[in-house]
Amino acid sequence: MPPPRGGRERREKSDKFQTFNRPKIKVAKTTAAGVRFIDYKDTESLKKMISGNGKILSRKRTGATAMEQRMLARAIKRARYMALLPYVATAS
Questions:
Q1: What is the pTM of this model?
Q2: Is the separation of the CB atoms in 50 and 56 below 8 Å?
Q3: Can you name the residues that pair with 56 across neighbouring β-strands?
Q4: How crowded is residue 43: how many other Cβ atoms within 10 Å of its Cβ?
């Protein structure tokens, strides 16, 4: 059989199934600890939910549900306003 026109070679289809890597189901630290409400005064746990630059970590990184992420964001913003947490990372 002559090669197809256009200079391209056709690859044979392989009989492999397409694989998808399913993400692991993350359990938020607040859910695992049994916390129902995230408080702005608990700065130690809030610091773990902030990146090195001072940004709030996403749900994908924290494993929080939508409701927990809203509570988390609200608590971090309140703690920043009360000067319990920094708005930005300190320059070193």
A1: 0.66
A2: yes
A3: 50
A4: 14
